[in-house]
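Fold this complex.
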Amino acid sequence: MQTALSIAMDAFAYGMALFIICIGLSLTMGLMRVVNLAHGAFAMIGGYIASYVARDLGLGYGFAILLAMIGTVLIALPLERLLYRRIYDRSELSQVLMTIGITFCVIGITNYIFGPTLKTIPLPTGLAHPIDLGFRSIAGHRLFVIASGLVVAGGLWFLIERTGFGIHLRAAVENVAMARALGIRTEIIYAASFALAIALSAFGGVVGAEFLPIEPYYALRYMVTFLVVVSVGGAGSIGGALAACLLLGAIDVTGRYLMPEFGNFFFYLAVILVVCTFPRGLMGRARSHG
Amino acid sequence: MNGTSFGRLLRSGALALAGTLAAWSGAASADTIKVGIIGPFSGPFALQGKNFQAGAEAWLAQNGKSVAGHDIELVYRDLPTANPQQARALAQELIVKDKVQYLGGVYFTPDAMAITPLLKQGNVPLVIFNAATSAIMTSSPLVVRTSFTTAQTASPLGKATVDRGIKKFVSVVTDYGPGVDAEGAFKKAVTAAGGEVVESIRMPLNTTEFSPIMQRIRDAGAQGVFAFLPSGPPTLGFVKSFSDTGLKQAGVKLFATGDLTQESDLPALGEAASGMVTSFHYAVSHDSEINKRFVAAAEKAIGAPDLLSFPAVGAYDGLFVIAKMIAATGGKQDAEKAVEAVKGLAWESPRGPVKIDPETRHLTQTIYLREVAKDAQGRWINKEIASFPDQGDPGLAK
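Structure:
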């Protein structure tokens, strides 16, 4: 029982870390219809900025997270204007080609600037030490990741389903021409949601750095995992992404505990089963014809 | 045919002739011996390749670019990740097109295995700077190795841990060739010393979340953990997970081969790895006059001090061996004679006294027991706490 609880706790934390990183990708793919393979690259940029701020400048963890999100968005916005805007209505193939190109450029540039070694983001003392939960001890930052994940999920749901911005965004997604005709500035809506997705990826890169360490090949190393999460959850669905992360996190962690020699077998078996049963992912939206 | 195109034809013909003449005279006048070095100079393992380069250049900087009147020219070829087919193609190109007399480098075992079948026909010896699986040496008599094997570094740890009063172990290794080698070597050594491995866990190569593994270690009730992971990002997650899940606080001891605490990863591992005991053939902080000079030269070649780690010493000694081969053959291409000449060769390396075993052509060397600690300047180092001299490769012992 203790063991089961303990594993559940680990699975929950891992799933939440995945969720924070992947939800931005789910939004760009589901709502903006851009297959952004460079998503991991932006998470990595966030991690590098946070590491620089916290380790080299010696500022606090909160500052590091904030500056990472702002800095990554500042880097990403010109890219949105110059590059992404051109591929919004293009085929998936052109999107994949361009964003993977961006990924390689980011890898090369970070390698040149920060070097090939691992970069850590020092945690504040409150998060760095194991906290005793009675039945086991868990690292403080894992609890922080769980809490952050819940806040992100709740906040996004509120933003998209309950605010004016959310209505405009959903309108632009359903039918761009009609939304424009009604006077919605779709470029601004797109730029804002792109910035939001990027800020979330940077946030995920920073808080997830204890699971997925920051190094130049981060962007490629975890690309498949991120894409799998989005396709299992169904692009564009917050609930779907959350369910996918928790399900896959649980299967991965339990599988590794019970039968580590089977490797990723259970993870991919689950992926295959889900994708066969729900071709659009757990809670994917049907593609509109707009 | 009109005038202009005829003129162009004439010009290009003249150019080609001039080129051939230049190549001829170049070959005739200067006696340059080319050494092809294959390693990961770009991609995720570029740091290890850079260390090859730094080690080789450090040797040239200290000993000059010529041996007994023959100039040495290094030709680098990039092989970013383990890729046997490409390794073979690169080696072939180096032998046939660049006419190298010696091959060196090679980071991964599968690449070395793909190159060795070419050596006899090409009349070229291969000096391995890293690839650490025992079996490579049996695949060709023209291979010499200046690095280490996983079995060689893992075995002394068995006795050392039992001597510290720890009897019950769990071994955790990455599920691929060297990991399985390490698991076997450690188990054999621990059992021989009177200890016991109660559980052997193999993790897939791409594992990033280690807490379930830590839970298994806890459930097994082990006093000590033996770990082997290839150098790189996952080692950080593993070591952090070990202390985060409370195993470290519970008094469980973590032992590993030095791959987990290579110097370039130490600034990131830092506090989490503090007190961890590893066994390895080389620590950048090794205290000797030769090593100090080597480190100074290699740091200059690599650019930043915290990038230097063990592949550099393999390359440095590799170049020493190649220079001896050149001197022994008088600059003539004779692979068999070259390898014969260095069998039994003993010298003082930056890592300590070493000797090429005439039987296996692998290095017999001192394996050190080290602890992750801070030095006087506050830098994290692998501090040597015990040494096991004259260790051969137990993986090849029949």
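Chain B has a mean pLDDT of 89.
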